[in-house]
Amino acid sequence: MPTDTRRINGPESSISPYAFVKSKQLTDKTGLITQAQGSSYIEQDGTKVICAVYGPRAVIKREEFSMQGQMTCEFKFAPFSCRQRRQHMQDAEEKDYSVQLLEALEPAVLLHKFPKAQVNIYITVLQNDGTLAASMTCASMALADAGIEMYDLVTGCSARIKGDTILMDPCSSEEYSDKDSATVNNGSVTVGIMPSLNQISAAIRQCVDVCIQLYPVCQQSLTSAVEDLIQKGSDT
Where in the sequence is the signal peptide annotated (predicted)? Predict the structure, then answer.
């Protein structure tokens, strides 16, 4: 068979260039929502979460008066974020996540620093592939970006136990299911940690290790945001 000299013959086999690119597990960006006091956007594997923080602002009159600052948290899946379209109104699962996130974030915030005021946290999942831990980290970053005084950042990590296997930060298809409980050892835990605290429970040690690894990434993102803000101020 004659050779076509006008063509460059390709190799018999090839390797995708993406095989040589180090995968980026976590992408974090602050200050995306300009109307909010603070905001953060996180991509963690197949999960995409954005959070906006408003406040501290005066508590509306009908709310119970308190010298301690108040926090509210609203968690919501975007209608297009899941395999099945979500409703615009909060359902039971979203309300449950809102309570869990509020309980994880409140201990990290110096609520006594803003009496008679409240901070409102709004978390929206743009793509769902295991969201609770990522939402925890995202909300913590948004609080810090808003200048809310905190004891420390809160980083989140989930673990899924299935038989003898422990899956770290499982995707939505790997998350806990009641159907598996009858046949295998089955459980799930989500850890929110302030890395300055020492967790000693062996059952959650892997979650703690992942949370500590996320901590410098969050710090670097906030440092870059502050440097950009200072640079813009010096330019004007």
Answer: none
